[in-house]
UniProtKB/TrEMBL annotation:
It comes from Nonomuraea glycinis. Residues 30-224 form the Alanine racemase N-terminal domain. The keyword Cytoplasm does not apply. PANTHER family: PROLINE SYNTHETASE CO-TRANSCRIBED BACTERIAL HOMOLOG PROTEIN, PYRIDOXAL PHOSPHATE HOMEOSTASIS PROTEIN. This is Pyridoxal phosphate homeostasis protein. Pyridoxal 5'-phosphate (PLP)-binding protein, which is involved in PLP homeostasis. Belongs to the pyridoxal phosphate-binding protein YggS/PROSC family. Its cofactor is pyridoxal 5'-phosphate. Keywords: Pyridoxal phosphate. The modification N6-(pyridoxal phosphate)lysine is found at K38. PROSITE patterns: UPF0001.
Length: 230
């Protein structure tokens, strides 16, 4: 049964997070698991919710919007973790509680306008580029403070912290150590911006070791991805 598959995946991921926290001398309660449900149906979100998962991540609005609507009755926090184009902001602000991929001033302004229009308070994380691949999005570390300031000053938004994806082919531990340094720099000016969104199925232990407060896990939780069919 699908329930058993997901329960098994969740138990395995929880075990890995617990072991990573123990190794890092951290409390398990310091790390939030975000179940990344892209390509999986709303039925799987419901099963996860029934197993106690409260944080769900999506990276494509055209898939996330109908899924969030179908699960609107559930006590979930929705995280938008993919690259966000300004023409999708209105839709995303309608369901996302936190947007992890804020990487430019124009996007901050667009999210702020829409949050005010919809009378919502949206959490925003600055996506940090840990490599030179423009296709993956993100702000260079030197430019992170300016984007953080823009979020903090924008109506309808609150600054959560930072997010990053480990570069391909690099030791994720070294990458996440750099992210932690950037995060600490942000916290100097914004003490409440304590979120560090880092780590996925393959590198969550390294992320936890370097201070991640939120890990974004899909494959290890739900199995190999399938093509999404709406």
């Amino acid at each position: 049964m699908r329930t058993d598959e997901i329960a098994s995946g969740l138990a395995g991921v929880e075990k890995r997070i617990g072991e990573a926290c123990l190794a890092a001398g951290r409390d398990r309660g310091e790390v939030t698991l975000i179940a990344v449900t892209k390509t999986y149906p709303a039925a799987d979100v419901r099963l996860l919710a029934g197993l106690g998962v409260r944080d769900v991540g999506e990276n494509r609005d055209q898939e996330a919007a109908p899924k969030a609507a179908a699960c609107a009755d559930l006590p979930l926090t929705w995280h938008f973790v993919g690259q966000l184009q300004t023409n999708k902001v209105r839709s995303v602000v309608g369901y996302a509680d936190l947007i992890h991929s804020v990487d430019r001033g124009r996007l901050v302004e667009a999210i702020s306008r829409e949050a005010v229009r919809q009378s919502r308070e949206i959490g925003c994380l600055v996506q940090v580029a840990l490599d030179d691949d423009p296709g993956r999005g993100g702000v260079r570390p030197a430019d992170v403070p300016a984007v953080a300031e823009a979020i903090d000053a924008a109506p309808g938004l609150w600054l959560g912290g930072v997010m990053a994806v480990a570069p391909l082919g690099e030791d994720p531990g070294k990458a996440f150590a750099r992210l932690r340094d950037v995060a600490l720099g942000v916290q100097e000016g914004h003490p409440r911006a304590t979120m560090i969104s880092a780590g996925m199925s393959v590198d969550l232990a390294e992320a936890v070791a370097h201070g991640a407060t939120h890990v974004r896990v899909g494959t290890a939780l739900l199995g190999r991805r399938k093509l999404f069919v709406r």
